[in-house]
Design goal:
Layout: E1 28-37, H1 40-47, E2 52-59, E3 62-71, E4 74-80, E5 89-90, H2 102-108, E6 116-121, E7 128-132, E8 140-143, E9 149-151, E10 157-159, E11 165-168, E12 184-186, E13 192-193, E14 220-222, E15 227-229, H3 233-237, H4 242-254, E16 283-285, E17 291-292, E18 307-309, E19 316-321, E20 323-324, E21 339-341, E22 346-348, H5 350-357, E23 361-363, E24 367-369, E25 385-387
Parallel strand pairs: 2-8, 4-5, 20-22
Antiparallel strand pairs: 1-3, 2-3, 4-6, 6-7, 9-10, 11-12, 11-14, 12-13, 14-15, 16-17, 16-19, 18-19, 21-22, 21-25, 23-24
GO molecular function: ubiquitin protein ligase activity
Pfam families: Pellino_FHA, Pellino_RING
Protein name: Pellino E3 ubiquitin protein ligase family member 2
Length: about 400
């Protein structure tokens, strides 16, 4: 199971967190010459020139090729499923709340091989913009006959990728006061559109003229299979660090919480112990929030296998081990870990739990639901999270 990290750890360009630094030499590109081509041979000649280009196939005998030229003022970073060299950040499908299996991912992936590109200004304030689709190894983006594409009133071509790149900017940045924004789709040229009726529908949404593709702290980028959280350098400066989370873990353990029935002392395991349940690990009844040590009793024959009756208040509900959420970038504040997401049992601060419980994340072709940021499990229950009730030591 995930806990803010990939189950098999970071490997090369496939990792759970990716930092963007100013490149030693600019590698950004900007549109330049436009060619309208009526023969496939001419299209090949242009795409073989070694320049970046975007090809829009309008029919069998007409293609518009937009050549891109070097831009000294920007750096480009590409994200996608491909492990080819143009991709800086390799992402794989997040299989919500379950074990990771590379084979199922490869055969069923809905993430594009060259999903999107992020273009950052090299000078302050280092504005970052997102665009759908990434350039492949031959420096080309190819929108075939079936892809949604069009000519804008000003004459420039644009289009959407098969499953689309969706972005949501929260209202008020990434703080405890923030509210969810509206999910939008980003085009290949970076314009903002309302969502299509379904994820891969041919008909594009409506242009949203007063919104931009500029990423802000807390922006969510959905690639149809994985959702990325964008944090700015300034935003991270005000966010708790891994050391802070470790200090909170030690603080809660130092208070020596006890199992109210077995009276044994409980302790959250080390952040590195993310997948093995330990003997002293706290467990909780998610319907009421009472924290216990592990025990075997409380099964009710008339309920599901994981449903138990809390010995403190007789409430029936899921009974799960508690895990401290490990990725500091998901916390909106540095508050104590007092709340758990339901039904996975990942623990974080109250404000972080409230924030994520309200965020609708894309799921499948047209559904949205709140999910735990640490493991992507769909949240359930009245509030999607529960306040934990610890019992202190009797002595």
């Amino acid at each position: 199971m995930y806990n803010g990290a990939l189950p098999n750890g970071d490997r090369g360009r496939r990792k759970s967190r990716f930092a963007l630094y100013k490149r030693s030499k600019a590698n950004g590109v900007k549109p330049s010459t436009v060619h309208v081509i009526t023969t496939p041979q001419a299209s090949k000649v242009i795409s073989c020139k070694g320049q970046h280009s975007i090809s829009y196939t309008l029919s069998r005998n007409q293609t518009v090729v937009v050549e891109y030229t070097h831009d000294d003022d920007t750096d480009m970073f590409q994200v996608g499923r491909s492990t080819e060299s143009p991709i800086d950040f390799v992402v794989t499908d997040t299989i919500s709340g379950s074990q990771n299996n590379d084979e199922t991912q490869i055969t069923q992936s809905t993430i594009s091989r060259f999903a999107c590109r992020i273009v950052c200004d090299r000078s302050a304030p280092y504005t970052a913009r997102i665009f759908a689709a990434g350039f492949d190894s031959s420096k080309n983006i190819f929108l075939g006959e079936k892809a949604a594409k069009w000519k804008n009133p000003d004459g420039h071509m644009d289009g959407l990728t098969t499953n689309g790149v969706l972005v949501m900017h929260p209202k008020g940045g990434f703080t405890e006061e923030s509210k969810p924004g509206i999910w939008r789709e980003i085009s290949v040229c970076g314009d903002v559109y309302t969502l299509r009726e379904t994820r891969s529908a041919q008909q594009r949404g409506k242009l949203v003229e007063n919104e931009t593709n500029i990423l802000q702290d807390g922006s969510l980028i959905d690639l149809c299979g994985a959702t990325l959280l964008w944090r700015t350098a300034d935003g991270l400066f005000h966010t708790p660090t891994q050391k802070h989370i470790e200090a909170l873990r030690q603080e809660i353990n130092a208070a020596r919480p006890q199992c109210p029935v077995g009276l044994n002392t409980l302790a959250f395991p080390s952040i590195n112990q993310k997948d093995v349940v330990e003997e002293k690990q706290p467990w909780a009844y998610l319907s009421c929030g009472h924290v216990h040590g592990y025990h075997n009793w409380g099964h009710r024959s008339d309920t599901e296998a994981n449903e138990r009756e809390c010995p403190m208040c007789r409430t029936v509900g899921p009974y799960v081990p508690l895990w401290l959420g490990c990725e500091a970038g998901f916390y909106v504040d540095a508050g104590p870990p007092t709340h758990a997401f339901t039904p996975c049992g990942h623990v974080c601060s109250e404000k972080s739990a409230k924030y994520w419980s309200l965020i609708p994340l894309p799921h499948g072709t047209h559904a949205f639901h709140a999910a735990c940021p640490f493991c992507a499990t769909q949240l359930i229950g009245e509030q999607n999270f529960v306040k934990l009730i610890f019992q202190g030591p009797v002595d």
